[in-house]
Amino acid sequence: MDFQGFLKALARRWPTVVVCLVLAVGAALAVTSVSTPVYEAKAQLFVATRTGENSIDLNEGQTFSQARVQSYAEIVRTRQVTAAVVKHLRLRTTPEELASRITAVVPLKTVLIDITVQDTSPRRAARTANAVAQRFSWVVEQLETPKRPVRPLSGPDNRDGETVPVSPVSLGITQEAVAPATPTSPRPLLNLTAGLVGGLLLAAGLVALRETLDTSFKTSEALGAFIALPGLGTIPYDRSAPRQPLVNADGYSKRAEAFRKLRTNLQFSQVDDPPRIIAVTSSVPGEGKTCTAINLALSLAETGVSTCLVDGDLRRPCVAPAFGLVEDAGLTTVLIGQARVEEVMQQVAGGLSVLASGAVPPNPAELLASARMEEVLRQLADLYEVVIIDTAPLLPVADTMGLASLCQGALLVVRAAKTNRDQVRTATESLDRVGVRVLGTVFSMAPVPKGGRYGRYGAYGQYGELPAPRVSATREEEAASAVTPGMDGQ
Question: Residue limits of the Polysaccharide chain length determinant N-terminal domain (predicted)?
Fold first, then answer.
């Protein structure tokens, strides 16, 4: 997945991004509110050497100080310093705990030592930093003071000419610590920024994980790249489709245009050997196969093609309810010999003939794969130019396998962002095993591009808008271009 595809995935899964951001920012604000403020006080020491007045001695002293100052910084947190400070200030802590709150930093190429102490009280932090600096100076000078040589137990006592050892280094406080006005932690702005960044990273990780685990198809191009079948149409998503599955044949909606394109692509894809009996199926329920079969049949009838729509889903028939037709008499009635095709065929607006499913039988798979079903299909093919059959899903039941083998072609409906690769692969392999010619795929419930226009043909207006009448049109032209009201619904 490239960067552009990842951005599209983030936009598509925006609820996940919003939830992650809210949780991360909420956590950052909660941590900020419950955190105890911590203050830092800093004292600064200067390390000097006691040398002669000539330049050579000064240079040697400077070099000596810079060489030793790094080692001095490590002494700040020793017990020699911290234990005395705890005792002197009567702190309610241990020398080890105090040492954990002390840092000593030597700026590069200097003989300065910055001592920083952290505490929950700003005044106590300043007092502790100054006490640590004073004690640290005394400890270093004591360590650098040469020891007197041990005198023999016997011998003359010549102490009159002895000199007192002096430390070659001297540490002076150049900056005393003062009580800080603001705490160094927590930092609300920094925590909020960290929460935002953390939320985005969490969202990106979750989206990447879901995209990796999600093997459904987001675009018709992805479906075409996965399976070697032509994509005959892309049907946009319409939330009103479950309530209104029929598309107005004379409408200019996105879905109406999509079914017209599907009809045209189907006709041109099989010019040399056009199929007369076409099964419309899907891998699993809920992919829009019934809606596709109904509106494809309506679209074919719209062009004057003699079309028959058969409800071949004998387990969950939906064609007759969509048109408001009689459900009890239909395909099963003909298969068991209780009626002829002509007696149970029903007509709907637009010149479409509909053969309902009839009563639900106990053995739909056997009925649909029977020789009698083959005879009925041949009879329908003699009466109509195209026979569209709405079938049951392929994977849950075996009904469609026997019926599809009697057809001259099949359309496989794949729902956007739901049908996964394994389901599509299994469905196509099942059709191949019984020798069914898969004419192509129909990508249903696809996301609608923003803008809702015909690409660069902006003058055509938005989908769903009727063309504006021409000002110079005559009455005859206006009457000829008037839209005849059709069925409501999708």
Answer: 1-89
- Written as six digits, the tokens of 7 are 């951005």
Instruction: Kindly state whether residues 57 and 112 are assigned to the same domain.
Output: yes
Q: CB under 8 Å to 100, separation ≥6 — which residues?
A: none
Kindly state whether residue 161 falls inside one of the protein's structural domains: no
In a domain, 150, yes or no: no
The model's pLDDT over 21-30, given as tens digits with 9 standing for 90+, comes to: 999 999 999 9
Are 392 and 280 in a shared domain? yes
**Amino acid found at 255:** R
**pTM for the model:** 0.65
Domain residue limits at 77: 39-145+167-175
Alpha-carbon distance of 159 to 150, in angstroms, equals 12
Crossing angle between the packed helical segments 122-144 and 79-89, to the nearest 10 degrees = 130
Asked if residue 479 is part of any domain, the answer here is: no
- Tens of pLDDT, residues 94-132: 999 999 999 999 998 888 999 999 999 999 999 999 999
Q: How far is CA 244 from CA 186, 241, 320, 339, 460, in A?
A: 57, 5, 13, 31, 26
Q: Give the chain's radius of gyration (CA, Å).
A: 44
Assess if residue 485 is contained within a domain: no
Residue 258 and residue 490: Cα distance in Å, rounded?
12
